[in-house]
Amino acid sequence: MITAEQVLAGREALLAATGHHPYARHALWRDHEARGWRRDGAVGWLLPPGQGPAGGAVGPAGPALDVFAGLVADGTLHAGQWLHLPRATPAEVAGRLTVARLDEWDFRWTTTAPPEQAGEDRVVRLTEADHPALDALIDAAFPSTTSRPGDPRVVDWYGIRAGDRLVAAGADRSRGDIGFLAGLTVAADRRGRGLGAALTAGMTRALLGRYDHVALGVYTDNVGAIRLYRRLGFTRTEPRTSVHLG
Predict the structure, then answer these.
(1) Of 118, 157, 210, 246, which has the highest C-beta tally within 10 A?
(2) What is the DSSP letter of 116?
């Protein structure tokens, strides 16, 4: 149960309660009003339909899980929705929520331009005419990604071509106050040639022209990508647990 004194109304109140945490600045879109709460050091929110996750939180995991468990119990949240929460153990989550799937990942961010990478000058902004090529690349190289052409969360697409072929691409999903890279994809037969580094660096440099922070998400078991992102300056980290409700 959330008491009246714990309620936070509106995006600005939520951002202030988190100390303008970079994750909250990303998750709370500029043009969407969220409603939320504060409890025992945790700040959480529910998001409007169509934004992806049903809600999220920063701060201690325990109080956040307790509140979301209450929201499931009262019917506010239901199976099929998902939440982006502070890092919690599977046992902590399972003790409060029915879990269909649990993912552990890191929200990483930088405030400085990355070292220049070979091939970075090949990174270009894509257009709607490139969507068929994007779909083909994603289907072949990264079918599990949630970032695809037509996704309302995506602002722009960037890519690298080899001749007429699209061999690397990534989505600009900057809907909050910071830049956000997602769905970074390299064709399987072109991996190990620095294209991932060139794409990430080029997109980061472009977004730092408009935002004071640029962030991305990476699964904790993707050791190679984590090593690359650290090298490019993404050294600040907020550990996350995503819970798909069963």
Answers:
(1) 157
(2) P
